[in-house]
Amino acid sequence: MIHERAGLLAAPSDLVDIAHLVSSYYTVEPDADDIGQRVAFGTSGHRGSSLTGSFNEAHIAATTQAICEYRTMQSIDGPLFLGRDTHALSEPAWVTALEVLAANDVTVLVDADDRYTPTPAISHAILRHNAGRTTGAGLADGIVVTPSHNPPKDGGFKYNPPHGGPADTDATGWIASRANELLAAGNRGVRRVSLARALAADTTDSYDYCGIYVDDLPSVLDLDAVRAAGVRIGADPLGGAAVDYWGRIAETHDLDLTVVNPLVDPTWRFMTLDWDGAIRMDCSSPYAMASLIEVSDQYQIATGNDADADRHGIVTPDGGLMNPNHFLAVAIDYVFSHRSEWPTAAAIGKTLVSSSMIDRVAAGLGRRLVEVPVGFKWFVPGLLDGSIGFGGEESAGASFLRHDGSVWTTDKDGILLALLASEILAVTGSSPSERYRELTAEHGDPTYERIDAPATREEKAALGSMSPDQVPPGDLAGEPITAVLTEAPGNGAAIGGLKVTTESAWFAARPSGTEDVYKIYAESFRGPAHLRELQSQAQALVTSVLSTSA
């Protein structure tokens, strides 16, 4: 149900008490016997809040020590790129991490201006240092302190190994297990020095994340075309880590680009409330993006990013805020038609809960489709070796290759995709939303929706282990079932849930990897009424699974 104040400016009563939040980071001691207060890596690192004993100093000290030990075990001895976003808990956690890294004699590269660092800038830095190497001495890795688009009370901690993308479960499982061992032992195994000693250490150095990333953008985008066309761009960092980057992009590349809201405030008092009444920097939500949508008629392309800038939101005067799936389809159609140096075998990567419009676009382009489980980590190998030209997921995260077919980032890049929208307009003369309407005329017009509902850890575990046997044979919403999937067709990996398809529709049910909710994704090419029938049957299945688990 949509909150009555969704889309309205946050009120004082909506704001988190920053002083209490930060003091709790230091004063609340997590209970290592409480599963909710242990280190747990989801699809985007460890997340929690200091107020609930799930993101506190002890967690970050233990996790960073575990990462140091993991690096030693894996013979990773190059620099570690360390960045943070604008959440209130990010700077305290960044400090804790630096103190532990310095005590372990890890070479750490921090931002040269002591400012905020988007996730894609960390991935770009790692790959630039490693220069195509994945083995050998001197390999770099990174940590990004961010809970992404989560509310202001939350903190997050992500590890990116030498491939530059999100760590796989072999790494995160070991790190979380070791961190919890340290927590249970009162962190007596954690090495740590003071912040003053860490900053003065020979192993601590600086890196111009913003300048190097921004200067390199022409290798992946046609910014000359954007400049020549005079595209009027409005970029809203939503108070996040991209705040300095957009101004630098405008200046460096001489673009007609306005930073719509350059404010940084850890309460995010300038945000409009999301669908559930929470402050959430979700650039794919029309409620969270309401302020930008209101002024979007002043720009030909308006864009938003979440707090660590790994997600994108695209707003056009003719179409408003684009559904992320719609823009992914347009972006894929465009780049595979305008990147002549890419390998002819380069495939299109999508998560299995992304729109089937992408399948139809891929078929029209004559390109191979690689369908993987939720999580950007599945695209990393293909982006590294160029076998995947574009990897995108339904939650508005994507990246793609440079003009020459080499890797740009192996983590999601919201800045990149936001600028691509302007390139599409500059080169084709059509806005991304206009181009999507052309695609629907060619391939059909799907209706897509995701439903979120609260779920306990036990319920999430039950949903994550669903099997094809739990789906009754026969029809789904009046059409014969064509497939029941628990493994992704593109790589055979378990999807942590279940997907059921028919000729013109599908649904997928899975637990969230970052929040205490489950998600039902559904899409139909037969219209909204058919989608509702599909969702009703999907919800009945989930209810049955949950009642059995109870």
Give an account of the 3D structure:
The structure is a single chain. β20 and β21 (494-501) form a beta hairpin. The chain is an alpha/beta fold and 550 residues long. The mean pLDDT is 96. The protein has helices at 18-27, 57-73, 90-103, 119-130, 169-184, 195-200, 209-215, 223-229, 243-253, 290-295, 324-335, 357-365, 380-385, 414-428, 432-443, 457-464, 528-549; strands at 41-42, 45-49, 80-84, 108-111, 141-145, 154-160, 204-207, 233-236, 257-259, 301-305, 312-316, 320-321, 347-351, 369-372, 388-393, 397-400, 447-454, 475-476, 479-480, 483-487, 494-501, 505-511, 517-524. The chain is 35% helix and 20% strand.
Could you tell me the number of beta strands? 23
| Unreliable residue stretches | none
Report the structural category.
alpha/beta
Strand content: 15-25%
Strand order of the largest sheet: 1-2-6-5-3-4-7
**Biggest pleated-sheet summary:** 7 strands, mixed
State Rg.
22 Å
- Please give the count of helices: 17
Give the structure's gist in a few sentences.
Helices cover 35% and strands 20% of the residues.
